[in-house]
Amino acid sequence: MEEEKEEPKTTDVVEDAWKMVPPPFKQGDMKHTLVEESSFATLFPKYREQYLKQCWPLVQKKMEEFGIVAELDLIEGSMTVKTTKKTWDPTMILKARDLIKLLSRSVPFEQAVRVMEDENGSDIIKIGSMVRNKEKFVKRRQRLIGPKGCTLKSIELLTGCYVLVQGNTVSALGPYRGLIEVRKVVEDTMRNIHPIYNIKAMMIKRELKKDPKLANESWDRFLPKFSGKSVSKPKPKKKKQKKPYTPFPPAQPESKVDQQLRTGEYFLKKDEVRENWMRKKKERQAEAEKRRQEKREESFVAPEEAASSSSKASKSSSDVDVEALKKKVKLANKKKKKFDV
What we know:
It is found in: Nucleus, Nucleolus. Monomer. Component of the ribosomal small subunit (SSU) processome. Among the domains are: 28-117, K Homology domain, type 1 (Ribosomal Protein S8, Chain: A, domain 1, 2-Layer Sandwich); 119-225, 2-Layer Sandwich (Ribosomal Protein S8, Chain: A, domain 1), CATH 3.30.1370.10. Helix content is 44%, strand content 11%. The protein has helices at residues 49-64, 92-104, 109-112, 134-145, 150-159, 176-190, 195-209, 256-263, 270-297, 309-318, 322-340; strands at 39-43, 68-73, 78-83, 120-126, 162-166, 169-175.
């Protein structure tokens, strides 16, 4: 008997799934035709009509290779792709859907047709709702493009993807690993993180991949770290507290007549009113004269003198303990008598 060849086990642990290349799906691998028809449609803006009219024969030619029908409706402004009985790869209808989506978002056909390859995919990132302020949105979108498109070109070179910023969306197509990095760069840029940080990190990772010693080590110590700056925000305006609502209007200020009625001057004669006014005037003048006189006399008031040395001595003498002094004198007299004897 001939020795049977051992088939490779499918339960083995896969170390690097990215390096696995599945066998290509060829025409004739699918034994039966599709049971149901699948179709996808998308709208396109008016300004893309002329370009799509020119490149549509190329789109149809590409779709015929996979047995897919492509239709262009200029009246409704839509593109449709459908499967047929000749379709031999069922996944190609999804690729065709991505192709017409990219064409509707101003991606040229030469780039969009790359999405039909098995190694490539597409991603449409919606950035319109990430920033509310219109001015900030425009600035950050321009920051993603860079001066003369330099930032966008560097992202394309590092990720291997084609990137197009159009309106409120960013269209990207290329290898799946590159699409993940493109999405991260775009989202970070719209969150006010400059794309240069991510570009620098990707360049460092590319160099670190070449060193086999660092394959099982953490690369965090080599990558740049972004620290957000605390920007001073304008202080909110103080809100005025609303007074409690009252249906009644505010009271009117008292008129001169009302004031006279309240004090009783309204019922006095003109001479009496004049006498009262003169008396109040003289009282005010007398008070003012008194204040002026006090101010003048302030300059003639003698300042307080510092305490003299004689007064200090008198204070110290008054503080002497008399009884203690008498005791000291008695002791001195006794000692003197002893020496005399």
